[in-house]
Design brief:
By secondary structure, this protein is α+β, with helices and mostly antiparallel strands. The chain has helices at 2-30, 37-46, 48-73, 164-185, and strands spanning 90-96, 99-111, 116-129, 138-141, 147-150, 157-160. It has two domains: 2-73; 90-185, no CATH class. Helices cover 47% and strands 25% of the residues. Helix 1 (2-30) runs antiparallel to helix 3. The structure holds zinc ion (ZN).
Length: 186
C-alpha cells in the first residue's frame, strides 16, 4: 500500500518533470538561447499544478520527518551501561503488548516463611517473541516510522509506536510493579 503510493508519486513527478524539461528546452531553443526570466516564469505559471505537486510532496516529507522524530523521541533512552547478564535468581515467562517475553531478575527480598520473592529487580528482558511459536520477532519501520514486528515463521504481525527496547523496559517495569503490589497487599 505504502509502496504503491510511493511508486505513484514518483511516477507522476517523473512524468511531470519530463514534460517540464522538454517544454523548457523547446522554449529555450525558440528564443535562441537567450536566458529570459520572464519566459521561464510564464512556463512556471503554465505548470502551476507541478508546483502544487512539489509543495504537496515537500509537505509529505516534512510531516513524515516530524512524525518519525516524535516517535523516536518518545522511546526509552538506552542506558549508558548495558547489563552483561550472568547468573539470575529468578526467570519469568511474561506476556505483554501482544508478545511473549523472557525476564531475568535478582531477588532483593525473600519471604522466608513462604520461600518466595517479595521484591525483585528485573535485570534483563529478552524478546519480543511470537505468541504462537516463541520465535523472535523481526523489527522494521513503517513509512511513518512506527515499529513493525513480524514473526518469520507464522507471519504474526503487530505495528506499535514503541521500539523493542522501550517494550522491554515496559515489561520489566510491569513485573517489578506486580511484586511491589504484592508487598503492599500484606
Ligand atoms: Zn510465529
Amino acid at each position: 500500500m505504502v509502496t504503491d503510493i510511493k511508486n505513484f508519486i514518483i511516477g507522476v513527478l517523473g512524468s511531470l518533470f519530463a514534460t517540464f524539461l522538454t517544454t523548457y528546452i523547446i522554449h529555450f531553443e525558440q528564443f535562441e538561447g537567450s536566458f529570459n526570466f520572464k519566459e521561464i516564469w510564464s512556463i512556471v505559471i503554465n505548470y502551476t499544478f507541478l508546483i502544487y505537486w512539489m509543495a504537496a510532496l515537500l509537505l509529505l516529507i516534512m510531516v513524515r520527518r516530524f512524525i518519525r522524530n516524535r516517535i523516536d523521541k518518545s522511546q526509552t533512552p538506552y542506558p549508558m551501561v548495558l547489563s552483561i547478564g550472568g547468573f539470575h535468581e529468578a526467570e519469568f515467562n511474561a506476556e505483554g503488548h501482544g508478545f511473549k517475553w523472557k525476564a531475568y531478575a535478582d531477588v532483593k527480598q525473600w519471604d522466608r516463611s513462604m520461600n518466595e520473592p517479595l521484591d525483585i529487580h528485573v535485570d534483563r528482558v529478552k524478546g519480543p517473541y511470537c505468541t504462537n511459536d516463541f520465535r523472535e520477532m523481526k523489527v522494521s519501520r513503517t513509512y511513518w516510522g512506527r515499529y513493525k514486528y513480524k514473526c518469520p515463521k507464522c507471519g504474526y504481525k503487530r505495528i506499535l509506536l514503541k521500539n523493542a527496547w522501550t517494550l522491554k523496559c515496559d515489561i520489566g517495569d510491569e513485573i517489578e510493579a506486580g511484586y511491589r503490589d504484592k508487598v503492599n497487599a500484606r
